[in-house]
Amino acid sequence: xxxxxxxDDREIYERDGHMSIRYRSxxxxxxxxVSRAAxxxxxxGFDGSVVDQVQGLESWLTAFPDHSMLELDYAGVARLFSExxxxxxxxxxxxxxxxxxxxxxxxxxxxxxxSKIVRRWGRVQSLAFAN
Length: 131
Known about the structure:
Layout: E1 10-15, E2 18-26, H1 27-43, H2 48-61, E3 69-73, H3 83-88, H4 91-103, H5 107-130
Helix pairs in contact: 1-2, 4-5
């Protein structure tokens, strides 16, 4: 999901007395980013299941009118992070940097950026699957 957003789309806001983050983008811009990422991931030789996920997101997004907005809002999930972690959370920037590194053929750097996202979200994801 983060590949659909530009790092500048990030907004920190307060929700019910707690800090949260949301990203907002014009859908047409998000589709361009996801389409580019799908091409790069496919060209980098990733397993079909990885490519299929990115292409599936692209396909799903293109079903909506171009003038729509795309929003990714942490909402209540933000409570699972400390405020310091939220301030430092640059998941969209890390995703974009990972895709850029893949495009340059720098798999090590791409993995480094991607692992930042995995480390940041790993605990939260494990909580989702534990329930």
